From TrEMBL:
It comes from the Bacteria. Residues 122-223 form the CAAX prenyl protease 2/Lysostaphin resistance protein A-like domain. This is CPBP family intramembrane glutamic endopeptidase. PANTHER family: PROTEASE, PROTEASE-RELATED. GO terms for molecular function: hydrolase activity.
Length: 267
């Protein structure tokens, strides 16, 4: 693994994203005003494409043609077993419903996913998430960074490194009034996103490093998100169930190296 490539990618992903997200956060509190605030606010909603652009730039400028081809190959690896798409699509929904059911049984309040209230509109929202958060982020995180990390680190270690960076990348959203993460505790996500990153890796390796599967998973998670904000008890429930799922993923074979599972995954 060329460490320089990862440093360049992570630096570009942060710089390209935060150049808009930080002014947007400041504008949401009235600290920045005028044309800059208006532009950052307008662009900020659609700025999740920067990890994809960072991956393309890094692959082209640092890795060369061979790395661009490898990256594009993972992006086009959609012909994998339908079971992996089913897990990516339905797994987050099942998890969110489990959280909602347990919360109701324990008297912790309403944690049923808001997607249940959207009806048919949820399909349109899912399509938007596929083209924005899913396509824009996963072509960078799982399409570029994770394979590079797996060249040197065990899958668990690679997942945690990427998960911590993923959490840091979201940081401006925690201070953006009205954003999806506004009011959500930073420490919760500092644990939740690395844990979620492990689940991504589990599915990514079993689907033969398919980025389309990761894109579907990302969109589905964002559609069925469980308690981005809530009471301490609610967040503890979500995190506890997430960590239990991570333990199952590790126990069922989070392979030490990507090459091992790429050879043995069923398609």
């Amino acid at each position: 693994m060329n460490v320089r490539r990862l440093v360049v990618f992570f630096s570009l992903a942060l710089a390209l994203t935060w150049v808009v997200w930080v002014p947007r956060a400041l504008a949401s509190h009235g600290i920045v005003r005028g044309a800059v605030a208006d532009l950052a606010t307008a662009l900020g909603l659609y700025w999740s494409w920067m990890p994809a652009i960072a991956a393309l730039l890094t692959a082209a400028l640092v890795g060369g043609r061979a790395e661009v081809r490898a990256w594009l190959g993972r992006l086009g690896r959609w012909r994998v077993g339908p079971q992996w798409y089913a897990i990516a699509l339905l797994g987050p929904a099942a998890f969110a419903l489990l959280v909602g059911g347990i919360a109701a049984a324990l008297g912790l309040g309403d944690l049923w996913p808001r997607a249940l209230d959207s009806g048919v509109a949820a399909i349109g929202f899912f399509a938007v998430l596929l083209l924005t958060d899913g396509l824009g982020e996963e072509t960078g995180w799982r399409g570029y960074a994770l394979p590079a990390l797996l060249e040197r680190h065990w899958a668990l270690v690679a997942s945690l490194i990427l998960g911590v960076f993923w959490a840091v990348w979201h940081l401006p959203l925690w201070i953006t009034a009205g954003s999806a993460l506004d009011g959500s505790p930073w420490l919760f996500h500092l644990v939740d996103l690395p844990a979620t990153s492990i689940l991504y890796t589990w599915l990514f390796l079993r689907s033969r490093e398919s980025v389309p599967v990761a894109i579907v998973l990302h969109a589905s998670i964002n559609l069925w998100v469980a308690a981005p904000t809530g009471t301490a008890a609610q967040l503890a429930l979500v995190l506890g169930l997430k960590l239990a799922l991570v333990a199952v993923a590790i126990a069922t074979g989070l392979a030490p190296r990507s090459s091992h599972l790429t050879r043995t995954a069923s398609g």
